[in-house]
Amino acid sequence: MSDVDAEEHFLSPYLSRRLPELGLDYETYGPYCLGAVGSESSSSSDGGGGGRDDDCDELDGIIDLLRSSSETHSDDAAAWADLRAEIIRRTGEWHVAIDVRKRQEAQGAKEAEEERIRQAKAEAEAYEEILREKKA
Questions:
Q1: How far is it, in rounded angstroms, from Cα 79 to Cα 102?
Q2: Close Cβ partners of 129 (under 8 Å, ≥ 6 residues apart)
Q3: Are 37 and 15 in contact (CB under 8 A)?
Q4: What mean pLDDT, rounded, does the chain reach?
Q5: Which residues contact 135 (CB under 8 A, 6 or more apart)?
Q6: What's the CA gap between 17 and 3, in Å, rounded?
Q7: pLDDT of residue 136
Q8: Rounded average pLDDT over 7-15
Q9: CA distance 81 to 26
Q10: Which of 75, 56, 59, 78 is nearest to 67 (CA)?
Q11: 41 pLDDT exceeds 80?
Q12: In whole angstroms, what is the distance from residue 22 CA to residue 30 CA?
């Protein structure tokens, strides 16, 4: 994940604050978390291809890595459970927002196509009227 992607990732603000609280450097460990969750390809709600379950499995492994790397909170099980829960919650909200945005875009495209069809029909009717007038 590039620096630009990491800066724009929906979890970056949270992790840049939370990881140091857990005794971890965000620049070092943040990319592991960012790469594990939040790919748009896993945001589909159709259940195909695993997606969110795969994200959670990978996240569990990363949480274990973070926990073993922390010098200050490695024994605080609640802190890691909270981190996992918050990442999952924020990821779920992000997936919902992506799904809503995609539905809105699809609806907008559908409405634009319907408007083009209405305009084409109106133009065809106007042209037919002109042809009828010329024949008369």
A1: 34
A2: none
A3: no
A4: 86
A5: none
A6: 17
A7: 72
A8: 90
A9: 18
A10: 75
A11: no
A12: 12
